[in-house]
Amino acid sequence: MRNDTAPTPQAIYRKDYVAPGYWVDTVEMGFDLDLDHTHVATRLTMRRNHDSAEKDLVLFGASLKLLQLRMNGVNLKKSAYSIDGEIMRIPNAPDQVVLEIETRIQPVKNTSLSGLYASNGNFITQCEAEGFRKITWFPDRPDVMAKYTVMLRADKKKFPVLLANGNLIEQGDLGDGRHFAKWEDPFKKPSYLFALVAGKLVCQEEKYQLQSGRKVLLQVWVEDGNLDKTQHAMDSLKNSIRWDEERFGLELDLDRFMIVATSDFNMGAMENKGLNIFNTKYVLANPRIATDVDYAGIESVVGHEYFHNWTGNRVTCRDWFQLSLKEGLTVFRDQEFSADLVGTATGRAVKRIEDVRILRQVQFSEDAGPMAHPVRPDSFVEINNFYTVTIYEKGAEVVRMYYTLLGHDGFRKGMDLYFARHDGQAVECDDFRAAMADSSGRDLTQFERWYSQAGTPHVKVQTAYDAAAQIYEITLTQSCAATPGQAEKRPFHIPVAMGLLDSAGHDMPLHCDGYENQSGANSLVLELTDTTQTFRFSQIGSLPVPSLLRNFSAPVILDIEYSDDDLSHLLAHDSDPFNRWEAGQRLASRRLVRLTKAVQQGEKLELDQLFIEAWRRILNDESLDPSFRELMLTLPSEAMIAEEFSVVDPQAIHTARQFVRATLTQHLRADLLRIYETYLTPGKYSPDAASMAKRSLKNLALSYLLEWVDDSTLALALTQFDEAENMTDRLAALTALTNFNGSGKQVKQAAKALKKFYKEFKHEALVIDKWFMLQATAHTTDVKTICELMEHPAFTLTNPNRARSLIFGFCNANPSRFHAADGSGYTLWAELVIALNKINPQVAARLARSLDRWKKYPGHLQAKMKAALGKVAAAKNLSKDVAEVISKALAA
């Protein structure tokens, strides 16, 4: 009998938090490293926490062979402790304890990539969130902070490099072909920040002088053959160190800082104290293998992990419910870092738009589905499932709202107070809010709801103008739909940055009741704290066009009835770059929704001249930065259009969007050709912002030109593919060639380019990931093609990067093909979730999310999705990770 309800493991609740019964002061660990059987010896000095209700000494362990357990020098008999699943309890322990534990683990068999595992013959660790318990028995929770000393011993020929957290204090030979290295971390840290790396690695290193004059050693460790791809990561690290000193007064606190790149990694990177471990995707780059997007991604992620040294490591989370305390804050910091490095107002706007696109496309969707949860969740089953866009990206928006409300200097004062109060502590989100409130004298009590309430608020706008009295009123009404476990929502504290444009497109002086101190300003931050509020502006001599939510000042959906003329006015004149872009997106979205409905009803498709001419003006406006024009001319994604419908028709959305692209190309072909030729970037590749901007606009023009393909435009793409001396242009040409609709001869030419690309780069793993992703997201790819690619000798399901490129690319980024009417995409999805569950539950759970909004689709697709969900639910040995996602999806 089929059971389509996944078993739901027991949930953990924030309200049930109990402080640990024992604190750990010091941790001494010895590793005898062997891929098949690693021996781990651990000595813990512990003391009772008299403030805790937990009286037993509690440790956690998973997939361990316990060899010996001693307390205060005495071997403990099995009757002296109990083990229930992952929990060991030692009752009646004294107040002062020295606990000695010996365990044996098998890194080579650890395909979960959590704990200590093998990657290409090297040892790697990943301990966040609960991986340390796969190494030894330990009170593996973030509020237990201790100082660590680690001794590593291994075969010197097989593992010549031995790394751990902190500072190297001793190393040498053991005389039997083995060697050792002893590391000491001078700062207390939770177990999730523990790290070790051992293997055959080479490094680029530099001495770097901090502003205080102290010199530190910076190292980027990679496998042999990749050393020529580390300079950008090193430069990004130095830029990060300098920026954190200048922007927040925070100095690197260790004598050395190390980055290690590995190709087998579940995440992008990990901020382990002094020994950051990275996915190769976010370290390796040179012009031959990396795109502009890769260069920007490396800069951002290197910054993110370095910034964690203070926002996450020095001040960490009391429990995992507070995850956004470190992640949301650090995402905000890395966003500001990347924006500051560009150094221009337009560059900052481009960065802001890019971040908001991700938020709207992914996080707003999460907020509207069965996995919706607050920035600070109230419960979870598997913590790995809560490393989400809500925790990270929405969490960053919450931090940004503090910045908007308090200003640059006020926010810095709050950060300074936060560190002064909590350095070396494990704290809560409310502690950060308290620092912001106390440093500014602001009452931020209501702001807490951004942490405790899930969902995306809607802000409805109504306006009224009294010409005789020259009074203009804006009435804002907020609401938030019910989310799982939260039927009622109380009003949020929402900052709404705004301005008013006159008929000439100029910002009007603002005189708003209650905002006397800013009287006459051209932009204000209104504070919406009630369900409905009216804001009254005086001395408004003509009917304005409101520019609301400037710079996307809050993560909300703005419901406002703009006319096309209003949007065209904002698109042409708004002084806020974000809202200029937003006006264009609203114009495009309005037409894409209408055309999607026309496709469904079999009506003739037409695109109006107003829209075409608006696009022409943007394309040819040389006063605009090329990168900004590229963003303005990029249509809303199919996923964004889907959010406009209560019932989604992926094929109709795809048809409508392709029609708009083809029609724009038909009318703007000459303009696009001119832009393409104008923004060619010959010569040596440079990842600077200006060069990136030119390439982005040129390659967008090329992608449009191949929507109305002929031999001349095809030749442009083929020539660029053959002659490009950098991966950005090479991949852009290949992407255009893979997605165009041409004749049989033309298609054969494109297929030849795809084969040539593989042959040239088959030994570059990161480039082959791009090759798989490119095909996974192509308009012509179907399930049969995916299955054929899975049989390719370069594909493996065990490597997360490769699985994400092909499988996730198809399921999450190719909606019109994944949601095929025959349900074949869902059948494949179920098979792969089950297969990945056996290998790597974290990766499997992320793939499981592809169907969590199955009820948003038509009935005939719903039935097939539910059957696929039921198949996964009925699978044997389903992990907590996958079971939680599937059970919530089926219960929606």
TrEMBL record:
UniProt domain Peptidase M1 alanyl aminopeptidase Ig-like fold: residue ranges: 455-559
Molecular function GO labels: alanyl aminopeptidase activity; metallopeptidase activity; zinc ion binding
SUPFAM superfamilies on file: Leukotriene A4 hydrolase N-terminal domain, Metalloproteases ('zincins'), catalytic domain
UniProt-listed Enzyme Commission number(s): 3.4.11.2
Reactions performed catalytically: Release of an N-terminal amino acid, Xaa-|-Yaa- from a peptide, amide or arylamide. Xaa is preferably Ala, but may be most amino acids including Pro (slow action). When a terminal hydrophobic residue is followed by a prolyl residue, the two may be released as an intact Xaa-Pro dipeptide
Any GO BP: proteolysis
Gene3D superfamilies from the UniProt entry: 2.60.40.1840, 3.30.2010.30, Neutral Protease Domain 2, Peptidase M1, alanyl aminopeptidase, C-terminal domain, tricorn interacting facor f3 domain
Enzyme class: hydrolase
Domain Aminopeptidase N-like N-terminal: 32-193
Keywords per UniProt: Aminopeptidase, Hydrolase, Metal-binding, Metalloprotease, Protease, Zinc
Superkingdom in the source lineage: Bacteria
InterPro entries in UniProt: Aminopeptidase_N-like_N, Aminopeptidase_N-like_N_sf, PepN_Ig-like_sf, Peptidase_M1, Peptidase_M1_dom, Peptidase_M1_pepN, Peptidase_M1_pepN_C, Peptidase_M1_pepN_C_sf
Annotated Peptidase M1 alanyl aminopeptidase C-terminal domain residues: 564-891
PANTHER family the UniProt entry points to: PUROMYCIN-SENSITIVE AMINOPEPTIDASE
Cited function: Aminopeptidase N is involved in the degradation of intracellular peptides generated by protein breakdown during normal growth as well as in response to nutrient starvation.
Family the UniProt entry places it in: Belongs to the peptidase M1 family.
The protein's name in its UniProt record: Aminopeptidase N
Species for this entry: Undibacterium oligocarboniphilum
